[in-house]
């Protein structure tokens, strides 16, 4: 089997991730719910994971990192916890439903929304951010990279614009955390929402939110915190403010191991290896008659792209192509809409969808070449 | 039960603050350990840091220097 669906979840994890999860299930107690060894060991591991994440995103301190189940939960938390009726929010057509749906729901509650257009390559125009600004604009909420095309947004540029306009910058880092540099301080990012099971190579059910110090987010869920138990409200201090209930300690032990692996392997190595494999795949398929590749593959963007190549073969249903790849070639790619309806609208692929190949640094050249061969063969039918 | 001794007890707003304190103390070999918050200080279920009351340094100043956050510092027979 050749797994090329890493934008959905990374299947191959470092060996130590599985071991850490198994060890945690057998030995770790509830973090922060006791002072015995099993509980403290869990609390120490969680703290170390917070420290690694805060260093990864250049957050002010480990306390500014709260864990959630995934990016979607983090984005809901940020959107519901920051915006109020009357606020205006700017987002883009590049977004996943994890950004769009929370915003649509806030729109029903009186938040005003502007969605910046994307061109046929799936790129936004940065000048549109300033044009969309109004006196009640509260924030930009956008993705770092499109999960469909792999196009990457310039965070420094968006951060500069937000700073100039005096508005917040909320980032969806689902497709880039663990692979691309994200510096909250340097890039002027107020909130980073991330998931643990994609580029961060951890287990599903792990994710989190990094919040700039001083920015208060109203909790979406309240309940047990292990501290300040006689308060009728959730503690005001981060991270417990945004962490009601028992954390997924066992999953976070896996994320902890994955973060150590990324630190040892080097994010730059991982990124360059993935981009090299992506270019190899792209070069292999781009000139096949009948194959249409989506996204910005211009020379200047090649070394900035996320390792994703979305394509269609003639007017075949993307689901049919993905099924054929899976059944006849044991190549696992993802078809359909990828929860990115507006991006498909911009690309003109709403009906057909697209077949998305998303790569990992664990993939080999042979696997990429076999995938190219399979696309070539299918395009002849 | 153990005989009560005079200890310096530091309390925290969050578990994260408590573990940050433990991590920093272990790094610099400052004696002490995490204990439940004594009821003399506050009812509840939080974590606190208990250390010898006769420790040579000033723990508040040290925590400030280390950029640690805490809620209160006091001496108690525990």
Task: Characterize the main sheet of chain B.
Answer: 4 strands, antiparallel
Largest β sheet strand count, sense and barrel closure of chain A = 7 strands, mixed
Uncertain segments of chain A are: none
Quaternary structure type: heterodimer
Q: Any idea what the radius of gyration of chain A is? A: 21 Å
- Uncertain segments of chain B are none
Structural class of chain B: alpha+beta
Which word captures the global form of chain A? globular
Characterization of the model:
- The complex is a heterodimer of chains A (about 375) and B (about 80).
- Chain A has helices at about 15-25, 35-55, 70-80, 95-110, 125-130, 155-165, 185, 250-265, 265-285, 320-330, 340-345, 365-380; strands at about 1-5, 65-70, 90, 110-115, 135-145, 170, 190-195, 205-210, 290-295, 310-315, 330, 355-360.
- Chain A has about 375 residues and is an alpha/beta fold.
- In chain A, the strands form 3 sheets. Chain A has a 7-stranded mixed β-sheet, with helices on both faces. Chain A has a 3-stranded antiparallel β-sheet with strand order 9-10-12. A two-stranded parallel sheet of chain A has the order 1-11.
- In chain A, helix 6 (about 155-165) links the parallel strand 5 and strand 6.
- In chain A, helix 1 runs antiparallel to helix 8 and helix 9 packs parallel to helix 12 (about 365-380).
- Helices cover about 25% and strands about 30% of the residues of chain B.
- Classes of the chains: A alpha/beta (about 375), B alpha+beta (about 80).
- The interface of A and B includes residues 32, 40, 43, 50 and 238 of A.
List keywords for this structure.
heterodimer, A: alpha/beta, seven-stranded mixed sheet, three-stranded antiparallel sheet, 12 helices, B: 78 residues, alpha+beta, four-stranded antiparallel sheet, 28% strand, globular
Show the helix and strand layout:
The complex is a heterodimer of chains A (381) and B (78).
Chain A: E1 2-3, H1 15-27, H2 37-57, E2 65-68, H3 71-82, E3 88-92, H4 97-108, E4 112-116, H5 127-132, E5 137-143, H6 155-165, E6 168-172, H7 184-187, E7 191-195, E8 207-211, H8 249-265, H9 267-285, E9 291-294, E10 308-313, H10 318-329, E11 331-332, H11 341-347, E12 355-358, H12 365-379
Parallel strand pairs in A: 1-11, 3-4, 3-5, 5-6, 6-7
Antiparallel strand pairs in A: 2-8, 7-8, 9-10, 10-12
Chain B: E1 6-11, H1 15-27, E2 33-36, E3 47-52, H2 59-65, E4 72-77
Antiparallel strand pairs in B: 1-3, 1-4, 2-3
């Amino acid at each position: 089997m050749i797994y090329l669906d890493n934008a959905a979840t990374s299947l191959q994890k470092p060996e130590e991730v599985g071991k850490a999860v198994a060890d945690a299930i057998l030995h770790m107690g509830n973090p922060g719910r006791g002072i015995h060894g099993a509980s403290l060991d869990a609390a120490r591991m969680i703290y170390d994971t917070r420290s690694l994440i805060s260093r990864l995103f250049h957050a002010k301190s480990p306390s500014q990192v709260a864990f959630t189940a995934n990016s979607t939960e983090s984005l809901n938390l940020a959107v519901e916890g920051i915006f109020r009726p009357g606020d205006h929010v700017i987002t883009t057509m590049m977004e996943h439903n994890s950004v769009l749906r929370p915003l649509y729901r806030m729109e029903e509650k009186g938040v005003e929304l502007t969605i910046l257009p994307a061109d046929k390559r799936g790129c936004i125009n940065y000048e549109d951010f300033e044009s969309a600004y109004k006196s009640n604009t509260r924030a930009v909420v956008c993705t770092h990279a499109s999960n469909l095309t792999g196009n990457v947004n310039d965070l420094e540029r968006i951060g500069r614009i937000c700073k100039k306009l005096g508005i917040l910058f909320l980032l969806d880092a689902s497709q880039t955390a663990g692979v691309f540099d994200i510096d909250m301080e340097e890039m002027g990012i107020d909130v980073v929402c991330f998931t643990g099971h994609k580029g961060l190579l951890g287990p599903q059910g792990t994710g989190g939110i990094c919040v700039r110090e001083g920015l208060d987010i109203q909790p979406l869920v309240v309940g047990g915190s292990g501290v300040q138990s006689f308060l009728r409200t959730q503690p005001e201090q981060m991270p417990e403010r945004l962490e009601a209930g028992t954390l997924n300690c066992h999953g976070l032990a896996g994320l902890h191991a994955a973060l150590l692996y990324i630190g040892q392997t080097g994010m730059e190595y991982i990124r360059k290896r993935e981009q090299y494999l992506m270019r190899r795949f792209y070069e292999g398929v781009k000139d096949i008659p009948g194959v249409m590749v989506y996204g910005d593959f211009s020379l200047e963007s090649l070394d900035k792209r996320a390792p994703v190549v979305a394509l269609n073969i003639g007017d075949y249903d993307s689901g049919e192509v993905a099924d054929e790849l899976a059944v006849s070639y044991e190549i696992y790619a993802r078809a359909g809409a990828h929860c990115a309806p507006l991006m498909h609208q911009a690309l003109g692929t709403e009906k057909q969808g697209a077949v998305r190949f998303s790569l990992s640094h664990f993939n080999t050249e042979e696997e990429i070449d076999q995938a190219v061969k399979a696309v070539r063969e299918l395009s002849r039918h | 039960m153990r005989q009560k001794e005079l200890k310096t007890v530091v309390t925290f707003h969050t578990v994260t603050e408590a573990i940050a304190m433990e991590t920093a103390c272990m790094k610099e070999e400052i004696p002490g350990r995490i204990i439940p918050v004594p009821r003399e200080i506050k009812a509840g279920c939080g974590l606190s840091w208990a250390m010898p009351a006769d420790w040579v340094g000033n723990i508040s100043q040290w925590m400030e220097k280390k950029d640690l956050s805490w809620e209160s510092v006091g001496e108690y027979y525990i």
